[in-house]
């Protein structure tokens, strides 16, 4: 029976989920494979041993020194994450043409037109509803709404990108310099800064069957909001808290379905680590971007895995390369996709077929006046006016349908003072 020995608390192994350190970090899958079903004693400090509750701490056998070395080295590094979220705007038509956005379940290439297919002579026209959805999102995220936004061509070659470039925004986005307040597990709050919210078009889809690949352009041109944070996230738990609050906000606004399984909401964490000395100097490590994650669990797992991989690589004398990675859900590890581009590699330049987008203050005021109550404000109202506990208020406001049902129930069966009855 193996004994985990450390001068300081090292980690706990739980049967209910991934192996985590006491700081909340996941331990790599090499350790996971060693877990058996017998409870053991775990050293939690010098001269202090305790037995785990039944079914919670398990024998992990003899740990290789390389793994123990990586685990102890993790505490000498800071995890730094900036999050990119792609959210499809809920509109009836695509970003630059009249084709419908109801592509889910439709036969391949049946929601297309000359503009979607990038045929010669086809010109784009801006979708006003998508612009309003982006402004509404920016207001909810406390952003500055710019009076002028400029669409730009982002040049790169993909089989499912028919034009050979994507119409996006770069130097002059619609919204920037915002923030989103999140709740942390210890009961505190944190402000995650939003760098920008810009509007672009989605790509098509590549479908792979055996040795053949097929292109479906039904999704090409669907309005896509990209929400980019500053590098303010420092744990997988903070990333989860940010994404859950953002998803609830988008759904309450009615601008996004939040359906991650169907690709309506996709997450791409930019992950790096830095030493405490680098942090003091204001320096950052080399970032790795994990592409197109379609579940919050995948986001948490990929961040935890990359933390250990990057620290282990640096401790072994290697260097982290700036690359794009994918997430292998079966193997619970990141896999290399391609080298990561810098902004200059995309050769951005203003879209010549679209004029600058002018946003009047009157239009912004009109949209702001019709904003619904956001989850954070609704939670605070439940706590302050109705005496609901924070944990219950967070659950009740996590989905608009749940909070609506709750308020209808209070109106119908609440106390005489209009507050919920306590049983």
Describe the structure in brief.
This protein is 27% helix and 26% strand. The chain is of the alpha+beta class.
Would you write up a description of this structure?
The chain has 423 residues and is α+β, with helices and mostly antiparallel strands. Helix content is 27%, strand content 26%. It has helices at residues 29-32, 65-74, 128-140, 236-253, 276-281, 296-315, 361-369, 375-386, 390-396, 400-413; strands at residues 11-12, 20-21, 41-45, 48-51, 77-88, 144-145, 148-149, 151-155, 165-169, 175-183, 189-201, 205-209, 212-216, 223-229, 265-275, 288-290, 323-328, 333-339, 349-350, 357-358. The N and C termini lie far apart (50 Å).
Strand fraction: 25-35%
Total E-strand runs: 20
Mean pLDDT: 84
Radius of gyration over C-alpha positions, nearest whole angstrom: 24 Å
N-to-C terminal Cα separation, in Å? 50 Å
Helicity, as a percent range: 25-40%
What composes the largest sheet? 9 strands, mixed
Structural class: alpha+beta
SSE pattern: EEHEEHEHEEEEEEEEEHEHEHEEEEHHHH
Provide the low-confidence segments as ranges: 1-65
Tell me, what's the shape?
globular
Strand order of the largest sheet: 6-10-11-14-5-15-16-17-18
């Amino acid at each position: 029976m193996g004994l985990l020995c450390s001068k300081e608390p090292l980690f706990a192994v739980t049967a209910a989920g991934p192996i985590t350190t006491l700081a909340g970090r996941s331990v790599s899958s090499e350790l996971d494979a060693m877990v058996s079903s017998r409870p053991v004693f775990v050293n939690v400090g010098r001269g202090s041993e305790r037995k785990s509750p039944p079914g919670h701490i398990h024998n992990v056998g003899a740990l290789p020194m390389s793994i123990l070395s990586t685990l102890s080295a993790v505490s000498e590094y800071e995890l730094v994450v900036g999050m990119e979220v792609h959210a499809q705007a809920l509109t009836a038509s695509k970003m630059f043409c009249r084709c419908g956005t109801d592509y889910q379940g439709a036969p391949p290439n049946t929601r297309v037109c000359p503009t979607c297919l990038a045929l010669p002579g086809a010109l784009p026209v801006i979708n006003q509803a998508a612009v309003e959805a982006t402004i509404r999102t920016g207001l909810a995220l406390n952003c500055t709404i710019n009076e002028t936004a400029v669409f730009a061509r982002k040049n790169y070659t993909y089989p499912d990108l028919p034009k050979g470039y994507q119409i996006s925004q770069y130097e002059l986005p619609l919204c920037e310099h915002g923030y989103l307040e999140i709740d942390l597990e210890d009961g505190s709050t944190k402000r995650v800064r939003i760098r920008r919210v810009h509007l672009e078009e989605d790509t098509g889809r590549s479908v792979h069957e055996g040795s053949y690949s097929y292109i479906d352009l039904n999704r090409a041109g669907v309005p896509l909001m990209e929400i980019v944070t500053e590098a303010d996230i420092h744990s997988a738990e903070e990333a989860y808290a940010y994404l859950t609050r953002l998803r609830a906000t988008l759904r309450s606004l009615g601008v996004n379905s939040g359906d991650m399984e169907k690709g309506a909401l996709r997450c791409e964490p930019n992950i790096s680590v830095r030493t405490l000395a680098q942090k003091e100097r204001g320096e950052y490590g080399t970032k790795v971007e994990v592409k197109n994650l379609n579940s919050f669990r995948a986001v948490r797992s990929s961040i935890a895995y990359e933390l250990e991989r990057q620290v282990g690589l640096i401790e072994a004398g290697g260097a982290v390369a700036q690359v794009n990675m994918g997430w292998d859900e079966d193997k619970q590890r990141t896999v290399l996709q391609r080298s990561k581009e810098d902004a200059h590699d995309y050769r951005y330049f203003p879209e010549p077929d679209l004029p600058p987008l002018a946003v009047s203050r009157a239009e912004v005021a009109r949209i702001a006046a019709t904003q619904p109550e956001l989850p954070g404000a609704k939670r605070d109202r439940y706590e302050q006016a109705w005496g609901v506990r924070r944990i219950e208020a967070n659950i009740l406001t996590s989905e608009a349908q749940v909070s609506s049902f709750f308020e209808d129930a209070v109106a119908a069966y609440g106390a005489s003072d209009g507050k919920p009855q306590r049983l």
